[in-house]
Each structure stands twice: as C-alpha cells, then as structure tokens.
Amino acid sequence: MLFFISKHSSVLLIVATFTGLLWPEASLAVFPALPYVLFFLMLFTLIGIEQKTLLKVLNKKSCWIYTLLHSVVMTVISCSLAILFNASDSLLVAIAAVSATGSLFATPAIARSIGLNALTAMAMTIATTLLMPVVLYINLLIFQHDEFSLDMTSYLIRLIVFIVCPMACSALVYHFVPRPTLTRVHNKLSQFTILLVFAFPFGLVGPLRDAFNSNPSHAINYIFISFCVCFLFFISSLLFYLRQGKDIALLAAITSSNRNVLLTFTVAGASLGPDFLILLGALQIPTYALPLFVRLINNYITTRHLSPQTDNTK
After folding, report:
1. φ and ψ at residue 103, rounded to 5 degrees
2. What CA–CA distances, in Å, run from 246 to 21, 250, 301?
3. Does domain 19-296 have CATH number 3.30.930.10?
4. Most exposed among 104, 194, 203, 309, judged by the fewest C-beta atoms under 10 Å?
5. TM spans, by residue (predicted)?
6. Can you tell me the distance from the alpha carbon of 308 to that of 298, in angstroms, rounded to the nearest whole number?
C-alpha cells in the first residue's frame, strides 16, 4: 500500500488539495497539527542524509547563488510585473512576501518522490529559509506603507525546532546506527514520509474555501494569480539553470515554486495585508500540482533520451 501511494504521490497530492477544499471542516481540524507533522517530515527526510555532506552542499557558492535567485531576483521580477499590471497595494505586498518566502520544508520529500536530488533540495530549503527574514523585511520596508514588525522569536523557535533539531537527531543516528541498518530503515521511511506531505495541501487550503463561500469570483481571481506566480517562479528558475542539466534545472524550478508561506505568515502576520491569507490558500493548488507536472516532464525527457534514434540512412 505504501509503495502504491509513494508511486502515485504526485496525483494524490492534488487529490489531497481538492479534498481539503471540498471538506473545509476537516482541513481546519488538520491545520493545528501541521507543525507536529512538519517536525517528523523533516526528521524522516534528514535521517536519509548525512549531515556532513549536507553542510558541504550548504557551504557551496552555488547554493547561495540559487538562494539570491529564489528570493531577491524573484522579488524584482514578480513585483515589477505586479506593478506593470496595476496590482493593488495589498496584493503587491502579498506577492512581495511570497517572493521573499523560503522553500517549503516538504520540498526534499517531494523532490525524492519524483526522482530528484533530496540532498540538494534540502540545502536549498535551509539556505532560502535562513535568508527569508532579511528579504522579507526589505520587501515590507519598500511595499508596506504602514508600520510593521517581524516576530523573530517565532522564526528562531521554528528554525531550531524544524531544522536544527532534526539535523542534530540525524547526526546522532548516523553516529550510532550501522549504515546497512540505517539504509534499510530509511527505505521504508521514505515511503511513509510522503504520507506526511499530504497533510499540508489538505490543511492549508482552508482560507481559499472561505473566500469561495464569500465571493467565488474573487477566489477564482486569486487562483489565477497563484498559478501565474508559481509559473513565473518555475519558468524563471528552469531557464536560469537549464544549461546545467535537466535534473538541476527541474530541481531549482520546483524548489523555487514551493514556498513556505505558512512560516512567512507566522513571522509577519497582519503586516502582510488581507490578501496574503487568501493567496496562501490559493497557492496550494499550483504548488501541489507541480510535482505531477515535473514528473511528466522528467519522464518525457528521459524517454526521448533513452529511445533509440531512428536510422534514416539507407
């Protein structure tokens, strides 16, 4: 059963998103449990990654170049387009906040589920999360005309709980557990991990349903905006990394598109304006549709690459 779920996880992520949209009471019930789910998701993912290797990747210049692309460059591109299309001040603040947001903590698990490098995805996720409050503060300083403040205490607590603690636990496991045993256990855990990812689209889509109930056309408008934002992040990163190969380009694209908007909301709250919470819910649809899209692209490219070339010579 776990193998079946893991194999079809890309489709099931979309199913989980629309199930949460159709069943808002259950979505709201799951929402408070998401921090606990997130801790175990990070822990189970990091158990399969040797921390010395992760730190080496995190220390590479290329990782931080990606981080600047993820946050700073995407802010410039997305906000410039929002201004060009005459977005409202509240929507502009929401887009600026999303652009500053680090990658979703579930990204390494999603990357593994579609055959991409979870180690690199984890390094990208950590780096973008570390840079997030700096870029977010600058973005709000530029686009938020009212007074604002960031809850750095909550940010630091979440950084310790969801990144530092799982990394420390993983390091201890690698030190005390024999490698063959660890490999065998992680092979089972990696199939279970994707089950935890389903909780996020299911539990975060609730605000969008509230918007649908009050103003359906307004909600549809935000779904359209969320697709545009995700598509912009995806295509920009894909084109930037395309010369470095298919795998790194797809990984950069999906990591850039997956945004930890819940963490940003926790840090900045009401400073993000009324549009951010609706956009948070709407973003769950394109975010969790992307793994299926990337899997299809990856399979198509791989199939074409491996298929025998037609011999036209006679």
Report:
1. -70, 150
2. 33, 6, 8
3. no
4. 309
5. 34-51, 63-85, 91-111, 118-143, 155-177, 189-208, 220-241
6. 18
